[in-house]
């Protein structure tokens, strides 16, 4: 079927560029990489526009292409920087999480509902700052799991790690984010200690 005659690829940048860039920035935390991924998305869409079935909106189709480009970027990063091995039982902060990786203390005690905090611009700035301080592989694992909602099998395949290693990586990422958010958000905004 292809893209409809009313759809003009020359208008994609104006219509979808900012949205796709924000989407990529949240996941990649790197402006040049986000710009590259958006550009590659538009090029791939232009090359394959004849195969667009129209079963979804044009925006959804472009986001789907961008997701694949970002996953390829994560795969490349995972090959470049091997992930760390480790045992959660050795970690001094292991008691802050339950058996499935959810915090037993933390965001709920930071003065509000985590979803409401996320919608606050200042908190989001601090969250992005903290996420950017993680190693690329830890940040990618966290992003795939918590922002993309990818399942364990998908994440393991993208990052080329075992399930056990993924849980260690996610635990470490959550602990580093927790510490950073406590220092840069919770303590600053409430004056409380942890």
Please explain how this structure is put together.
The chain is an all-alpha fold and 194 residues long. It contains 8 helices and no strands. It has helices spanning 12-28, 31-48, 58-80, 114-119, 121-132, 136-147, 152-159, 163-190. Helix 1 packs across helix 2 and helix 5 crosses helix 8. The longest helix has 28 residues, at 163-190. The chain is globular, with a radius of gyration of 19 Å. Residues 1-6 and 85-92 have low confidence and may be disordered.
List the helices and strands and how they pair.
Layout: H1 12-28, H2 31-48, H3 58-80, H4 114-119, H5 121-132, H6 136-147, H7 152-159, H8 163-190
Structural key phrases:
194 residues; 0% strand; single chain; disordered N terminus; mainly alpha; 8 helices
Provide the helix percentage.
55-70%
Structural class of the helices, strands and pairings?
Answer: mainly alpha
Distance between the termini: 58 Å
What portion of residues belong to β-strands?
A: under 5%
* Number of distinct beta strands: 0
Rounded to an integer in angstroms, the radius of gyration calculated over CA atoms is 19 Å
C-alpha geometry: globular
Spell out the helices and strands N to C: HHHHHHHH
Low-confidence stretches: 1-6, 85-92
**Largest sheet, described in full?**
none
Q: What's the average pLDDT?
A: 78
Supply the number of helical segments.
Answer: 8
């Amino acid at each position: 079927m292809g893209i409809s005659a009313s759809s003009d690829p020359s208008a994609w940048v104006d219509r979808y560029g900012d949205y796709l860039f924000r989407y990529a920035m949240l996941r990649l935390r790197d402006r040049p990489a986000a710009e590259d991924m958006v550009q590659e998305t538009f090029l791939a869409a232009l090359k394959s526009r004849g195969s667009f079935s129209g079963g979804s909106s044009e925006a959804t189709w472009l986001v789907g292409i961008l997701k694949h480009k970002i996953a390829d970027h994560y795969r490349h990063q995972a090959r470049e920087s091997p992930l760390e091995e480790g045992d959660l039982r050795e970690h001094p902060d292991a008691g802050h999480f339950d058996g499935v990786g959810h915090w037993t203390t933390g965001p709920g005690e930071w003065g509000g509902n985590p979803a409401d905090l996320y919608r606050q611009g200042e908190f989001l700035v601090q969250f992005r700052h903290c996420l950017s301080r993680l190693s690329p592989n830890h940040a990618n694992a966290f992003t795939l799991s918590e922002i993309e909602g990818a399942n364990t099998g998908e994440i393991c395949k993208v990052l080329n790690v075992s399930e056990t290693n993924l849980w260690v990586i996610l635990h470490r990422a959550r602990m580093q984010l927790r510490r950073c958010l406590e220092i840069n958000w919770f303590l600053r905004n409430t004056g409380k200690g942890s």
